[in-house]
Amino acid sequence: MDTFIYLLLETLIVGLMILGLHASKKHFGIGLLYIFLGTMQFFQTILSGNVYNLYFDVFLFSPGSTLIFISTLFAVLLIFRNESIIKVRSVIYGIILSNIILVFLSYISLEQILSDNFSRNTTFLAEIFNFDIRLFLTGIILLYLDMILIMFVFRYLESKFSKNYFLQFIGASVVTAVLDSVLFYSINFYSELNYSEMMIGNIAGKVLVCFILSALFAFYFVINPEKDNKRKALTIKDIIMIINFTTSGKR
């Protein structure tokens, strides 16, 4: 039970930070939220390879990486729901770019660690900065597709259930999270003996975080009706414009 309490607390902290930074954009701009999401990508990388917990004596998954992955998708949804096309485009490609730069800097740091005998904690640092490039490329491609997919699903649910905020968030996030886990583990670990256990544990962790964040985000919009989206909802055509660099994206 302690592990679940820690996950719940961690999820609430990250979720409140995303909502708080977005709510304060009139005073500080949207850039603070972008910076927060970018810095969290490094935290996700460290946790995904080092920290795992067993939940309810059944599901094993990395709490930090699972949380940060899902919270990133929720931040994209929040910006998609309330901002212009150009801002949605900025956050998507900013997250992708931050992940790519992170890997390049990590490889350089790894070479610096191994180049002489003056660095401290070299074994520990080498494990942190040593990425499996195949897993990274698969993850970054799926993350990009996930961010596009979740907007399509969210837009559909928003058009069908305009006032049911919880259903909008939980539906879009769970569909995307489950599909991501199935594809990621099937591509990279299908031949492993514990393939099913890893995939099911990852799905369970993501769905759990989706439920918590969906409740939090829905509650936020219920008690803050003035913060609700007052612009015309982005259409499927608008979503396509987000990934089309030939358009300005101004709206």
UniProtKB/TrEMBL annotation:
<protein>
    <submittedName>
        <fullName>Putative vitamin uptake transporter</fullName>
    </submittedName>
</protein>
<feature type="transmembrane region" description="Helical">
    <location>
        <begin position="199"/>
        <end position="223"/>
    </location>
</feature>
<dbReference type="Pfam" id="PF20973">
    <property type="entry name" value="VUPS"/>
</dbReference>
<feature type="transmembrane region" description="Helical">
    <location>
        <begin position="58"/>
        <end position="79"/>
    </location>
</feature>
<feature type="transmembrane region" description="Helical">
    <location>
        <begin position="31"/>
        <end position="52"/>
    </location>
</feature>
<feature type="transmembrane region" description="Helical">
    <location>
        <begin position="133"/>
        <end position="154"/>
    </location>
</feature>
<feature type="transmembrane region" description="Helical">
    <location>
        <begin position="91"/>
        <end position="110"/>
    </location>
</feature>
<feature type="domain" description="Vitamin uptake-like sensor">
    <location>
        <begin position="17"/>
        <end position="220"/>
    </location>
</feature>
<keyword id="KW-0812">Transmembrane</keyword>
<keyword id="KW-0472">Membrane</keyword>
<keyword id="KW-1133">Transmembrane helix</keyword>
<feature type="transmembrane region" description="Helical">
    <location>
        <begin position="6"/>
        <end position="24"/>
    </location>
</feature>
<dbReference type="InterPro" id="IPR048533">
    <property type="entry name" value="VUPS"/>
</dbReference>
<feature type="transmembrane region" description="Helical">
    <location>
        <begin position="166"/>
        <end position="187"/>
    </location>
</feature>
